[in-house]
Design brief:
Immunoglobulin-like; 1 helix; elongated; five-stranded mixed beta sheet; alpha+beta; 160 residues
Amino acid sequence: MFNNKHVIIALIVAPILSLIAYFGVDQMVSEKPHKAVAGNTYPLVAKSNCRYTSGICTMQNGDFELAIRLDKNTLYVTSPYSLSTVQSFLLHNLNEQQANKKIFQQVDDNGQEWALVLTEPPSESSQLRLVTIAAESIYYGETNMAFIDYKTVFEHDFAR
């Protein structure tokens, strides 16, 4: 089989052609990154640390990123960018149809740290819907509150 020169050439050329096709199709059909346009809305995607007991949840869209954490019944939202406002809707169980809008209070002068004191502590099954405005663009996202407790399988707390 390996004595045939056509088989040897095919074994060399086929992987090269597959890589060219893979990157060529990606170049043709992938979405090109663009700047946020004022007045448009953009969804935030919850990263994997939002699904586990990590103590912090990161929501992201391109370069825009929000870090959410709960500390003693206070929900904190931190962003590297200046935010105009941060609002949330907290559903304590999935059967709720109506949630009250809660508006965060600005903690620092730059608008990068926001806090909300919760009247009742959320559970891990609670649903958080977040809306924020940055540079006149609206960002929104949704995640569950499984991240609220930081737990490790070890006895030592490595995060703090």
